[in-house]
From TrEMBL:
SUPFAM superfamilies xref list: NAD(P)-binding Rossmann-fold domains
Any matching Pfam family: Epimerase
Transmembrane segments: none
Coiled coil spans: none
Name of protein: NAD-dependent epimerase/dehydratase family protein
Location of the NAD-dependent epimerase/dehydratase domain: 4-33
Leader sequence segment: none
């Protein structure tokens, strides 16, 4: 099966993607690295 995961590089998303891949599924990851939590 094919899955689309938004936020796939975050903590929960990355574990979800890892589980899908481990079970032989295809995964497309969409994420946004805009740096909104950057400490200045």
């Amino acid at each position: 099966m094919k899955y689309l995961v938004t936020g796939g590089s975050g903590f929960i998303g990355s574990h979800l993607v890892e589980c899908f891949l481990k079970n032989g599924h295809s995964v497309i990851i969409i994420d946004n690295f805009n740096g909104f939590m950057t400490i200045k």
